[in-house]
Amino acid sequence: MKPFRKYTGSVVPLNKSNIDTDIIIPTEFLKRTERTGYGQHMMYYWRFHEDGEPNDDFVLNNETYKQATILLSGENFGCGSSRENAVWALHDYGFQVIIAPSFADIFKGNCSKNGLLLIELDEAQMNELFSREKENPAFSLHVDLENQIIQDDSDWAASFTVEPSTRHKFLHGLDDIDLTMTAEEDILQFEKQRAFYMDPSVN
Amino acid sequence: MTPKTLFEKVWEKHVIDTSLDLPLLFIDLHLIHDVTSPQAFNLLKEQGRTVRRPDLTFASADHNVPTTDRNLEFKDLLAKKQVDALIKNCKEFGVTVYDLDHPDNGIVHIIGPELGLTTPGKTIVCGDSHTSTHGAFGAFAFGIGSSEITHVLATQTLPQAKPKTMNIQIDGEMPDGVSSKDIILRIIGEIGTHGGVGHVVEFTGSTVKNMSMDERMTICNMVLEAGARSGMIAPDETTFAYLKNRKFVPKGEKWNEAVAEWSELYSDPGAVYDKTVTINIDNLAPQATWGTNPGQVTSIDKTIPSPKSFTGSNERTAAESALDYMDLNPATNMNEIEIDRIFIGSCTNARIEDLRLAAQVAYGHKVHNNVTALVVPGSYHIKRRAEQEGLDKVFIDAGFEWREPGCSMCPGMNPDIANPGDRVASTSNRNFEGRQGKGVRTHLVSPAMAAAAAITGHLTDIRKWNYKGGLRKNEAFS
């Protein structure tokens, strides 16, 4: 994972709650054995018509937002299936930060392993962001993960909180498995005292 | 001593003492399948790591597999590539794999309990959100992503923030025609699709106590759709009776020792949950979803709600867009919604009791001319058992298709998908847009309700059903 400290990007609004991972990456596009190449199918059913032509009414297809890398969305973003492909798809498409009132648990865990930063803001702050974006089509945000502050180009700023271990990992670009393996001795000790009935009994 | 919840007891037994930031949880059982594991194995190999505990890792091919003749070549080459990768990776790392033709093959969440791999007090993970199913045995079981799969393969552990606890107490006697599927749909309807976010739910109460394991698995399976991290039920005599003599459980004196330990797994009197919800089901009616998330659900004898009836603006907009996608109007009677296809199957409702209930409904009737009806048992064990009981014959005589086990129409990853615009009554767990094929409209229901809809051609109140062979709850059908 690359370290993530400060980030500036333009914003696209998708003000809808419960955007599930089936929407983010439909099942039919999961059949790859790789972790790459999912961006082309991100939100496929919303981005494209049945004949494969782009759906011009969908916000992500609007020219204004083609370069956007920060997604604003509604509550419970990423709910449903555990597919990590959803995170790979969003990241591969170009999103670096997603801002919403809340995120689904498994999705959150998956993002923390792929360097996709999730920021939770309360509803009033979200509303403010949506309305500022509306007034200013070139709306950008500056994210400072070190100090956990997000601000726009004028007078708006908010603090946010990222779970400390996730923040630590992002700031230093750390890999989970390497971190865990620093405790290998402890794992070995634990394994020695597990109860017999915790193992499948082959007799 | 401070009273502890069931979850806390299981949690504490699995936290490894380390100096890391997050609690590091030892994982007792890791289940893997064809769709989410290839990328995880690839990462493992790229990083030059190996599987730490192949003896605690078990695989089954389920998501992608064809449910028609297994001897047919896969029509879908990408699907074949994933199944082949699963088998190859498992062989390379010494992991037991139940491939397509293995007599123990089936949906991972069905074969875990069936083989006695799922036992009380374990931590169980799988790269599939419905891993919560195993919580019915008093295990802490949850879905993980592909990076986490790699993490568990490499270390047999997972760093985890400790979730909060929620008690959902269910009391009352299940009315005729009402199943545990209806109960969990109602609960999701009440607390909403994110009512459980960040929590492990423990189901308690007299109704749960009286449920069979098959019924318990259905509620734990679907609690995930309320946003919960997992569901759990304290193990009891019903649990032990289900598990005894299964393939991987301890035998003889060891069995007694294990049961003695497992019997300690319950929430102590006075244990405090972060949240408690109570529900009485004495007057519960069979449920069916009308929208595009499992919380958009109502009773079969009611009408589709008007979006205006929702107080929050988010819910109102969600209802409007759901009705638009579903091509339905408010105030339509639920039991008049016409159906093109029905699917009885999935890790939610493809166990033997589900099939019995559906067969009792189907017995002596014929599937409606406009309907295609699919019955997909959850595993080969269930398929063989159903065939011994003659359920396959009941279904086939009535005009249902009787298939080989797999996830089939639930994730819609295999050839089993509906056509755009089709309306499906499904016993699975998700009615999301496009879940069962692009433009497909899904109504989630119980197995009995799905069987009835297959015959009448529309959603039907099962309480008024003409059971031509009688109704015998949870009994073998013969």
From TrEMBL, chain A:
Instruction: List keywords of the entry alphabetically.
Output: Amino-acid biosynthesis, Branched-chain amino acid biosynthesis, Leucine biosynthesis, Lyase
Q: Which reaction does it catalyse?
A: (2R,3S)-3-isopropylmalate = (2S)-2-isopropylmalate
* GO cellular component, as recorded: 3-isopropylmalate dehydratase complex
PANTHER family in alphabetical order = 3-ISOPROPYLMALATE DEHYDRATASE SMALL SUBUNIT, 3-ISOPROPYLMALATE DEHYDRATASE SMALL SUBUNIT 2-RELATED-RELATED
Question: EC?
Answer: 4.2.1.33
In Pfam terms, one family for this protein is: Aconitase_C
Its gene is leuD
Q: What is the lineage of its organism?
A: Bacteria, Bacillati, Bacillota, Bacilli, Bacillales
Q: Which InterPro entries match?
A: 3-IsopropMal_deHydase_ssu, Aconitase/3IPM_dehydase_swvl, AconitaseA/IPMdHydase_ssu_swvl, IPMI_Swivel, LeuD
**Name of the featured protein:** 3-isopropylmalate dehydratase small subunit
Q: What does this protein do?
A: Catalyzes the isomerization between 2-isopropylmalate and 3-isopropylmalate, via the formation of 2-isopropylmaleate.
Question: How does it associate, per the subunit comment?
Answer: Heterodimer of LeuC and LeuD.
- UniProt similarity note: Belongs to the LeuD family. LeuD type 1 subfamily.
Q: Which organism is it from?
A: Virgibacillus oceani
Q: CDD domains from the entry? A: IPMI_Swivel
The answer to whether keyword Lyase applies is yes
From TrEMBL, chain B:
Give residue ranges for domain Aconitase/3-isopropylmalate dehydratase large subunit alpha/beta/alpha. Answer: 8-457
Protein's GO biological process: L-leucine biosynthetic process
Determine if Transport is one of this entry's keywords.
no
One GO MF annotation is: aconitate hydratase activity
Give the co-factor note.
Answer: Binds 1 [4Fe-4S] cluster per subunit.
Superkingdom field? Bacteria
Give the UniProt keywords, A-Z.
Answer: 4Fe-4S, Amino-acid biosynthesis, Branched-chain amino acid biosynthesis, Iron, Iron-sulfur, Leucine biosynthesis, Lyase, Metal-binding
Summary of subunit composition and partner proteins: Heterodimer of LeuC and LeuD.
Q: Which cofactor does it need?
A: [4Fe-4S] cluster
Positions with a binding annotation for [4Fe-4S] cluster: C347, C407, C410
Q: What pathway does the annotation place this protein in? A: Amino-acid biosynthesis; L-leucine biosynthesis; L-leucine from 3-methyl-2-oxobutanoate: step 2/4
> SUPFAM superfamilies recorded for this chain?
Aconitase iron-sulfur domain
Task: Name the family the entry cites.
Answer: Belongs to the aconitase/IPM isomerase family. LeuC type 1 subfamily.
Q: What is its EC number?
A: 4.2.1.33
The reaction(s) annotated as catalysed by this protein in its Swiss-Prot or TrEMBL entry are: citrate = D-threo-isocitrate; (2R,3S)-3-isopropylmalate = (2S)-2-isopropylmalate
| Top-level EC class | lyase
Q: What is this protein called?
A: 3-isopropylmalate dehydratase large subunit
The keyword Acetylation belongs to this UniProt entry's keyword annotation: no
InterPro entries cross-referenced by the UniProt entry: 3-IsopropMal_deHydase_lsu (IPR004430), Acnase/IPM_dHydase_lsu_aba_1/3 (IPR015931), Acoase/IPM_deHydtase_lsu_aba (IPR001030), Aconitase_4Fe-4S_BS (IPR018136), Aconitase_4Fe-4S_dom (IPR036008), IPM_dehydratase_rel_enz (IPR050067), IPMI_cat (IPR033941)
Purpose of the protein: Catalyzes the isomerization between 2-isopropylmalate and 3-isopropylmalate, via the formation of 2-isopropylmaleate.
